Amino acid sequence: MHRRLIAPGALAAVLLLAIPASAATPSPGAPGIGDPYYPSYGNGGYDVSHYDLRLTYRPATDELQGTATLLARTTQDLSRFDLDFLLDVSEVRVNGVKADFTTSGEHELVVTPKTPLAKGTAVTVVVRYSGVPSAKSAYGFTTWHRTSDGAVAADEPEAAWWWFPSNDHPSDKATYDVSVAVPDGTQVISNGTLQSTSSRLGWTRWNWRETKPQATYLATLAVGKFDITTHTSEGGVPVVNAYSRGLGDNDGAARASVERTGELVDWLSGYFGPYPFDSAGGYVPDTTTGYALETQTRVYYSPKQFANGSNTSVVVHELAHQWYGDSVSLKGWKDIWLNEGFARYAQWLWSEHEGEGTTRELADYVYASHPAGDPFWTVKPGDPGPDHQFDAAVYDRGALAVQALREAVGDDAFFRILKGWPQEHAYGNASVADFQKYAEQVSGKPLAALFDTWLFQPSRPSAPAARAASL
Ligand code: ARG
Ligand code: ZN
Fold this sequence. Notes:
Its cofactor is Zn(2+). By secondary structure, the protein is of the alpha+beta class. It is about 25% helix and about 25% strand. The protein is built from eleven helices and 22 strands. An eight-stranded mixed sheet has the order 6-5-9-3-2-12-15-14, with no helix packed on it. A four-stranded mixed sheet has the order 1-4-8-7, with no helix packed on it. A four-stranded antiparallel sheet has the order 10-11-16-13, with no helix packed on it. A hairpin with a 2-residue loop joins strand 14 (about 195-200) and strand 15. The longest helix has 18 residues, at about 390-410. The chain is globular and about 65 Å long. It starts with 7 loop residues before the first helix and ends with a helix. Bound molecules: arginine and zinc ion (ZN). Zinc ion binds near residues 321, 339 and 343. Zinc ion binds near residues 340 and 343.
């Protein structure tokens, strides 16, 4: 009854007093960055600009220890925040002051600073840690792989949890210094440029630096006995490759493929524009995994890629990702087509160059190999879902979509799009919707129907009219 006596304006004033604007109340950062495919990946409330990792690794026992220093900026008033991490933490400092920390969920390190952090301020987070990465798992799996003489971290969409604390999502890119000490005679491979090595007390420290923004899943670390080769491409790109001493019969084919990195970077630059990074290369550890990964500047290859002889196609695929995926990164994991559709299309362009089938022939072949009703067509490359993110359809139907775009806009506009896109969003993040908008802008054609048909329908599109006759 009394409420009636309060004028509406007065009630609003009372509410405002009772519930202060959220900007004035520090709150916990979210445990995930908000990606619907992987709700717990990444974190809310801050943005990292630089990771400095100073580590020591013992191959014999798989012990990793050291300090990660993160330079970040808050994006809200923060009472606490999460990092994604699995190893054992002994101390966390926020702006120099010891912070409380605990673990939560599958891979969250929850940090509560002594005093809340104001929105928009610079924060330095120091995490001291140690642990045996191979002994840790999350959701029942591990992506840390021990080898005969070391270990490798390279996987997608997650690899960082096993070796450094991070905001593990491609939408938060940062620069990196990765410094790892290993026993003399062992090598360390990581992203970017090798700044220096130094030896003392039986340990050699390797200092790698990546100066361009890099997604967390593209950070890589390999320790082992490697033969490292260096050269400079005709186009001036410094190349650093590394081959495990344990490649056995695959050694020749691995080198015959990966040593062509400089040539292939230059060739791809003709389609995609200038190579976006200061260094290029790849490494082949003696792992038993079957995939390759476009780890920034230093591609990870499995020896299996080279079991049948040279495989320049996989090198082209991973190098294409340096533009499509690494420099221009996904906004969310649903945008995976922007990575895999274009990396596969680059392989088709290379096939055409090598006289092993034109892009059009390959498109027709893929289309014909999957008749209507093939579950292949139920995967929507534009939003495949986390369980189908790396299905063959994302790659092959994804490349079909690229070919369909080419035929719709014509070669001139198509190749301007292919080269313009990596410039438009260099070192940033973009979505499939952004790409559609860009392609429409460059070509002057409405493309909504084409994108919907090739990327978002769970069924086999009818072949482009011009080709229906031959199929
Ligand atoms: N982006 C990688 C490639 O296309 C795929 C990695 C898939 N991840 C995995 N663990 N199999 O080369
Ligand atoms: Zn790929």
